[in-house]
């Protein structure tokens, strides 16, 4: 189903009434009110080279789908257990459709003040932190129509807070299981690392459905305060026909570091926006993305690292593989603002085409408002390197296996950056499924 965007109207009274009936916090209800009041006046997103005026981002079956919860790791569905290390996992949050379903957090971390909670519950339990960070420094409620719709319809997500000088050695993992074709995902992920702290967060969106006509509207806000470090890994694998908008936003202050390793494997038509603001001096961000498109899927990726701080460093690496009639646009932007002296902005975008009908565009952009800086970019779109295939086949490897090895090598820069072995394994299996089947 498609709809003209201008014909869609939020049922504003029902949104607020439903939130009130669920006894949500005053803060969250106020955010929903702000969103519905501003929705009509806001512009729709305009991704470069992708027309979305006929995409249906809005019509959903139900705002919240209640699903089962779990008391132990052993009770988790097999698909979820395949993503976690059952013997060694210490910190895990599971969401089942729109229901917070399981949480395990190391007792020592709890004693140090680390918070891992469902985002809606956190707005009640930690209002001072949510009021400071929720849709204030990363993504704003009035940024565009889809951001406002997200705030109005929020139905899941997780809040992670790491206090000052706390170093978390083991990753915090989040798994969202989508197994109800009537469930839309309006997830909000808020990760805050206070001064001098460190955390690795890995999330998985996993569905065992072949298709669903519901909506994906996911926003992540990742805030690294002075001298903090956040490593953010993700593997998204949601079914075809789910129209989607995914906005992951980072903000890094003085001497802070945000590294991204994202395996974007959804089969849906999706607009991705990943932007990191290097606000502080000597702040850094490395962004690695891998995507595989197939069928008649359309995807648009805008990745930006915007430099405000002096001596800030931002590097973007994107590798995509396209097959069948899949189409993807890779827009990479390194933007050095005036005053960001000695900043370094680098990016590389490369796309492999596996069929004559597939399409991939790599568009590197450098915007420089300062003189004393370093910047560079590289981009390529082409087919599997015949010389590499010849080299492998000359050593007794058949063509199909040679292509498999070349593709895995091409994507390994991102796969190897994921910090959880089970997640790496899942990503490799998804690549096998999408590219080589």
Task: Tell me the layout of helices and strands.
Layout: H1 12-21, H2 26-39, H3 78-81, E1 92-96, E2 99-104, H4 107-111, E3 115-118, H5 119-125, H6 127-133, H7 145-153, E4 156-162, E5 172-178, E6 187-193, E7 198-207, E8 215-224, E9 229-237, E10 243-252, E11 257-264, E12 270-278, E13 284-293, E14 298-307, E15 313-322, E16 327-336, E17 344-353, E18 359-368, E19 374-383, H8 386-393, H9 399-415, H10 421-436
Parallel strand pairs: 1-5, 4-6, 5-7, 6-8, 7-9, 8-10, 9-11, 10-12, 11-13, 12-14, 13-15, 14-16, 15-17, 16-18, 17-19
Antiparallel strand pairs: 1-2, 3-4
How many helices? The count is: 10
Secondary-structure-based class equals alpha/beta
What summary fits the major beta sheet?
Answer: 10 strands, mixed
Mean pLDDT: 92
Quick one: how many beta strands? 19
Number of domains: 2
| Percent of residues in beta strands | 35-45%
The parts where pLDDT drops under 50 for at least 5 residues are 1-7
Radius of gyration: 21 Å
What does this structure look like?
Helices cover 22% and strands 37% of the residues. With 437 residues, the protein is α/β, with parallel strands linked by helices. The chain has 2 domains: 5-279, no CATH class; 385-437, no CATH class. A hairpin with a 2-residue loop joins strand 1 (92-96) and strand 2 (99-104). The radius of gyration is 21 Å and the shape is globular. It starts with 11 loop residues before the first helix and ends with a helix.
Features:
437 residues, disordered N terminus, alpha/beta, 19 strands, 37% strand, 2 domains
